[in-house]
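Why do we care about 3D structure at all? Because function follows from shape, and shape follows, mostly, from sequence. That is the central idea of this module. The next example makes it concrete: a single protein chain, its amino acid sequence, and then its structure expressed as tokens.
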Amino acid sequence: MTDAPAELVHYAVSDAVATITLDSPANRNALSRQLVTELFAHLERAGADDDVRVVLIESSGKVFCSGADLSEASAEGMEAGTRRIVDLQRLIVTLDKPVVTKNLGAVRAGGIGIVAAADIAVSAEDATFALTEVKLGLAAAIISLTVHHRMNPRAASLTTLGGEVFTGAEAAAYGLVTRAVPADRLDEEVAALCASLATGAPQGLRESKRILNGDLVARIDVLGEEMAATSTRLFASDEAREAMTAFLARKK
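And the structure:
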């Protein structure tokens, strides 16, 4: 009998804030099936908990999320995975409570979709972001649903086509994150923000969020299936498989 895999996502509630912590350091919080399943469950739990007004997603270490789990993608394909990440973004956008993300360090590829789906995103100024898909023969298809809704179009073109690293300060200027602050003030700023949000009345928060996100929900519902199919096709292509295999070999 094999042991159950260790929990990769933790959940705690304090002062009306549900804190969901990504804790999968072995693969830099990549969006493995297990991590996404646990993140889904904790978001739904927070949504159903009357004691929770605000949801905070953070990571246990400096890396917030490294994007798709390329080991799983290269071994098993991404048909189910791409649709699940579309659903994950939709869940964050439609949750009846404000969702906040906090990142001290790196966010890559699919992880940027979580940040973009959140209502409010706070980053350390020197944190790093990159839409690296283009380097692997892929495209930022499924996360374009949220990322292109947040980012100004010129910034989206630069970061999506270039695939280069940009900072938290630049992410704020681009519209991807709400605010970038010095790393040593990140915890304090996010705690104050969550405490302020938690003073909102449940109905007020729910209805305000529905109004704010109406266009984004419609965008996901219209384009989600097409973007998932595009992403699945690209992950299965020879060019992407070759690039992912080479990338994984370099990491060993």
